[in-house]
Design goal:
Elements: H1 3-29, H2 34-58, E1 71-78, E2 95-98, E3 102-105, E4 115-118, H3 121-134, H4 142-151, E5 163-169, E6 174-180, H5 182-188, H6 193-214, H7 217-234, E7 246-251, E8 257-266, E9 271-280, E10 286-295, H8 298-315
């Protein structure tokens, strides 16, 4: 099979997996009580406003360790199904930020190489301030998340689920929290603030990892401009993909960039899933493949749900 054919199949598999997950999770989300969802949505907004007020008053001072090589923030995924074709493959910690600003990016894909780049110490402090003070990660605990899930009364089971873990290691603060099967639980438990906050940080760390592979901000901007151009050539409507839509980005053993982007847009009337793969050779030659597939809109899913409930009631 040619490289181009493999690339097309890779994109098709990415889009198929994404749309299958979206449809399954939509059905799971439909199991939630609509009134509770609306009330919880309002509650989340109120909680966030209270949290913002509390953040300014209770901000924790960010003290970096004296040791410049000390790890201050760590993000990793353990267990679960992994893409591996090598029996002896051992994944490494996905993201580590050191006190001196070094950012170490590990791998959970045997094709990837381990990478690193640097940020300033001020940027390290800003990152930790965002995680600790703005997102209140110290108030989120693994047991608290599990209890909140149990309190909903909704059961969610997933075999061989990966554990997503965030660790903070500062002289005055040490904290670790994890969420199982984050990709699924963030959708199924969309009303649990702790999970949504964790998921937001997960997305932030994905972008940080992608920066190691794609390169400087200038290179990121140029790549997104190229994707934007491709998007507008293929589609007359819709919002182009952004760096926040990145799913993964790696540099393989031959120095080639392989990046994947995905997003679902749903305006209530129409819904689309977008998938984009980018391949850039070591010499800088870039190829972009973009696909879009239609999905049932939120209004259509709601109508189908109501019709199903009506049928169930008429059978009683």
């Amino acid at each position: 099979m040619s490289i181009k054919s493999k690339f097309s199949w890779m994109l098709f598999f990415l889009l198929f997996s994404f749309t299958t997950w979206f449809q399954c999770e939509s059905r799971a989300g439909a199991a939630m009580n609509q009134d509770d969802g609306e009330n919880n949505g309002s509650s989340l907004v109120a909680q966030q406003e209270q949290s913002d007020d509390a953040t300014a008053k209770d901000a924790i001072e960010i003290k970096l360790p004296d040791d410049p090589q000390a790890v201050v923030l760590k993000y990793h995924i353990e267990g679960g199904g992994r893409r591996s074709t090598e029996e002896d493959f051992q994944p490494s910690t996905l993201l580590q930020v050191l006190a001196n600003g070094t950012v170490l990016v590990g791998r959970n894909d045997p094709r990837a190489t381990e990478l690193e780049y640097s940020i300033t110490k001020e940027e390290v402090r800003e990152l930790l301030d965002d995680v600790i003070n703005k997102n209140r990660i110290l108030d989120i605990t693994t047991d608290g998340i599990k209890q909140s899930m149990e309190d909903t009364g909704r059961k969610f089971f997933l075999l061989n689920a990966p554990a997503h873990r965030i660790s903070i290691e500062l002289p005055n603060q040490k904290h670790e929290v994890e969420v199982d099967a984050l990709v699924s639980t963030r959708k199924f438990y969309s009303d649990i603030e702790q999970i949504q906050t964790f998921a937001k940080l997960h997305d932030k760390f994905k972008v940080m990892r992608a920066r190691a592979a794609i390169g400087t901000q200038d290179k990121i901007d140029k790549l997104m401009q190229a994707i934007d151009k491709k998007f507008k050539e293929q589609y007359s409507e819709g919002e182009p993909l952004t760096i926040e839509d990145v799913e993964s980005a790696i540099i393989d053993e031959k120095g080639r960039l392989l990046a994947e982007f995905k997003r679902v847009d749903d305006d209530g009337t129409r819904a689309f899933a977008y998938a984009c793969t980018v391949r850039r050779s070591k010499k800088g030659k870039t190829s972009i493949t973009l696909m879009r597939v239609g999905l049932p809109s939120s209004k259509k899913r709601e109508a189908e749900k109501n019709a199903s409930e009506t049928d169930d009631n008429s059978d009683k």
